[in-house]
């Protein structure tokens, strides 16, 4: 087994093909260096919703988040990589950056795009915010 300077890898997942690609890449690194990875899904609870109750909306997002994390965990298990699941609520980039700092991650592996193309247009992508503000290296996977 080769040694790596990375001990803790965080992979933000949102169910998009881009986050799946990032997860595949992270699994390859983790398997090569025998590293456990953490999967994080952040529920964006900052949006204003007018068509359904906020409670129902957040419950749907939580259910979706659980499914995303379960699918990502199955991907890691299939590749024989140890992983753990983390779910947070708030603004995705902010929550990820706070978690990285608190838990002292060595590397973030993230897809270059996610599910929110409209948000990306107006506010910038999560991956861009991570690259510009993270205290640890960020690997952006296309």
Average predicted local confidence, pLDDT: 89
For the record, the CATH class is: Alpha Beta
CATH architecture: 3-Layer(aba) Sandwich
Low-confidence stretches: 117-124
Key attributes of the depicted protein:
Rossmann fold, 5 strands, alpha/beta, 49% helix
Structure explained in plain terms:
The protein is built from 5 helices and 5 strands, in the order E-H-E-H-E-H-E-H-H-E. It has helices spanning 17-33, 54-78, 92-103, 117-123, 126-133; strands spanning 9-12, 37-43, 83-89, 107-111, 138-141. The two termini are 27 Å apart.
Write a compact overview of the structure shown:
This protein is an alpha/beta fold and 142 residues long.
């Amino acid at each position: 087994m080769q040694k790596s300077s990375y001990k803790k890898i965080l992979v933000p997942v949102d169910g998009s093909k881009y986050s799946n690609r990032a997860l595949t890449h992270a699994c390859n690194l983790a398997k090569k260096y025998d590293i456990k990875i953490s999967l994080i899904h952040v529920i964006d609870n900052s949006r204003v919703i007018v068509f359904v109750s906020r409670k129902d909306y957040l419950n749907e997002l939580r259910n979706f988040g659980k499914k995303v994390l379960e699918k990502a965990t199955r991907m890691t298990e299939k590749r024989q990589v140890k992983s753990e699941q983390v779910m947070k609520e708030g603004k995705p980039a902010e929550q990820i950056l706070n978690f990285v700092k608190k838990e002292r991650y060595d590397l973030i592996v993230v897809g270059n795009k996610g599910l929110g193309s409209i948000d990306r247009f107006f506010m910038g992508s999560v991956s861009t915010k991570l690259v510009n503000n993270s205290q640890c290296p960020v690997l952006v996977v296309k």
